[in-house]
């Protein structure tokens, strides 16, 4: 895009993505790094962020769905790509032909991938997922022998190569949580069993961003980093991005759409949950919940406009919200910064998360498709 959009845009600093990947690689020097680019790279744009991450030394990309992974291949990306969120009847054959690494949590999935490999005349790259305690995807320890046995048989018939054994933490963002050590122990045990049965995984991995940052014994051969690649702290308790050596990549900007003077006692936005105390000036910010601005941040979301942080006055609507700029010198067309790295006085995604009662992951990931992404430092 040549011209900066006028209504609103999310500026994505690809130099920040590259420097975050380098910082994470320094935290896990013996492991390879998978940049997790699911959900359009947490709202930052999958293809440009994937390219930036690979430039900075990531050797793997990770997505949730196979469609997301196939889109990266279609864009010409040749690196290893793993995807883990499968349902019966999924695009197994396309995945095998695109040389994706596919995750398998149960024998139904192994059966489907074997059939696809046979049809394609190719060997499928499969990673076995262990549920070491998260209680979400992954194979339970009680079912592990059956899954490993089926994988060993599939390798013997030549349809499958098991490239990885992996798992995922429940509470890595709470260092010292007792589940962390229990999950590591379970992972070691399930890995040892698979290896005893003849599986020789190229990569063993369990660490997400918080584990990469806080738990070296979880790094194994590969760390899977999502949120930290985009420069957002996995949890405020772990430190600010700056303290973690990270830089937020997304800045969300809008242009003030209207400024007007209203009398005292004037209700603002749906429901009139804000009423002016005195004659004042209101500025209209032309983004709303359709753009991913959380309605839960009504009355509290922060915006830098006219040199000061203002709070959303009244409700966030679908396409717009209002701030009370009091006596400030603000005109239509002036910039309003909802969040960014914070070093120019603007709020951060973490501030919006606090205002909306959620996590910063959700703030950046939900910025909607109607908001153009503008790439810097590509
Ligand atoms: C999303 C996801 C990650 C990345 O998590 P972050 O906390 O963003 O680093 C890693 N592994 C799996 C399985 C995921 O679903």
From TrEMBL:
InterPro entries: Ala_racemase, Ala_racemase/Decarboxylase_C, Ala_racemase_C, Ala_racemase_N, Ala_racemase_pyridoxalP-BS, PLP-binding_barrel. Its cofactor is pyridoxal 5'-phosphate. It is an enzyme of class 5 (isomerase). The active site is at 38 (proton acceptor), 270 (proton acceptor). The keyword Isomerase applies. Substrate binds at residues 136, 318. PROSITE patterns: ALANINE_RACEMASE. The modification N6-(pyridoxal phosphate)lysine is found at residue 38. Residues 249-376 form the Alanine racemase C-terminal domain. It catalyses: L-alanine = D-alanine. Pathway: Amino-acid biosynthesis; D-alanine biosynthesis; D-alanine from L-alanine: step 1/1. Keywords: Isomerase, Pyridoxal phosphate. The keyword Isomerase applies. Pfam families: Ala_racemase_C, Ala_racemase_N. Its EC number is 5.1.1.1. Catalyzes the interconversion of L-alanine and D-alanine. May also act on other amino acids. Belongs to the alanine racemase family. This is Alanine racemase. It comes from Streptomyces cirratus. The gene is alr.
